[in-house]
Amino acid sequence: MRKLLNLLWLLAAPFLMASCGDEKDPSPAPHSELTAVVQLSKHTNLGYLPVGRDSEMKLYSGDTIRYFFRFTTNQGIKDFKVYDNFVGREFPLTVHLKATSTANGVTSNEYELEYIVDSYPQSQKPYQPVILNLEPQHTDGTIYLDPTTGKPFQMLFLKSGPKEYTGVRLYNYWGPSSNSLTINDYRIDNPDPQALVDERSLNPFAFLTNKMPPREWFDNRFEASFTSGPEMGEGRVAFVKVPVVAKDWYQPNQIAKAMKQYGPEKTTVLNAQVGDVYAFRVSYPLMGSWVIYGVLEVKSIVDDHDTAAGNGHDNDYLEFDIKYFPGYRY
After folding, report:
1. Which of 302, 304, 293, 275 is closest to 329 using CA atoms?
2. What is the layout of strands, in order, in the sheet containing 237-242?
């Protein structure tokens, strides 16, 4: 009997061992991961901001954002769609596949998307949220959702708007009300970043001061001219006369391009006339400083034809409407 059992074991063993050997390793748990890198464009749309300035960058109509996505999964990749909140899912944006690799059952695709702010007529309002929805799709058609929300991934930014000032007066350099107009990043008495400040003094870092030639105290001439403070250095503030339509521009890109088109740039404007419109660029002489683009319109020129030798007024001035786009730019 024992010999029979041993024989049965010898006959069955190969089949039992084969059966054990045919068992497959357990399938790996489904795993997917999505990462993104964002680069914000310069005004020319050809270059991008350095690291460390992303949180301080303001996006305006006409700007370009470049996104780099990497989708890695062991479930295969069928598609990768991105759409915004203006045209919806039916009209996905153009996403370019830049690289793909597969190893040990894991596929990794790299994608690139260039998104132009305000590429649709219905999205022209400043301070408007822009939402990009991301839908990486597995081979079986399922969409990889944000693990924290259970919804499609979203990338959100707010479109910025310009600072606008009307009826700004720049007084006679030689008069008792002489002033400077300065764009300050931050200051104790004015925490609004990059706001226009009316300085009741001749600030050497001024964005605008009245430019007057040397004269005698009894000279009642008023020249409708302007320049920047003496410490701004050559080219830190530049002006270019542009068409009147420029006062309605809401894209810093337009202003930057117009300064090249209608140049040359000037650091001093002489003999300004009512109705003139000038595009301008301002940068402060600090390492890594921001650059501002804007437009100003000469609204009125007032000359009281008096001097300190007369009744002491001499409160001649130029009046401007000024609009510019704050934020770190190049």
Report:
1. 293
2. 163-171, 317-325, 291-302, 277-283, 237-242
Largest alpha-carbon pair distance within the chain? 139
**Alpha-carbon distance 220 to 310, whole Å?**
9
Q: What are phi and psi of 252, to 5 degrees?
A: -60, -30
Give Cβ neighbours of residue 152 (< 8 Å, ≥ 6 apart): 133, 134, 135, 143, 145, 146
- End-to-end C-alpha distance for the chain, whole angstroms: 95
DSSP string, 278-315: EEEEEE-SSTT--EEEEEEEEEEEE-----TTTTS---
Pairing relation of β-strands 64-73 and 32-40? antiparallel
Q: What is the pLDDT of residues 132-182, one digit of tens each?
A: 999 999 999 999 999 989 999 998 877 888 999 999 999 988 777 889 999
Burial 223-244 (b: 16+ CB within 10 A, else e): bbbbbbbeebeeebbbbbbbee
Exposed / middle / buried, residue 170 (Cβ in 10 Å: 0-12, 13-18, 19+)? buried
Count of alpha carbons within 13 Å of 109, Cβ hemisphere only? 19
- 288 falls in which pLDDT band (50, 70, 90)? low
Distances (CA, A) of 305 to 34, 182, 220: 70, 27, 6
3-state secondary structure of 259: helix
Length of the chain, in residues: 330
In the numeric block, which tokens belong to residue 240?
């270019």
CA distance 220 to 275: 24
CA-to-CA distance for 283 and 301, rounded, in angstroms?
27
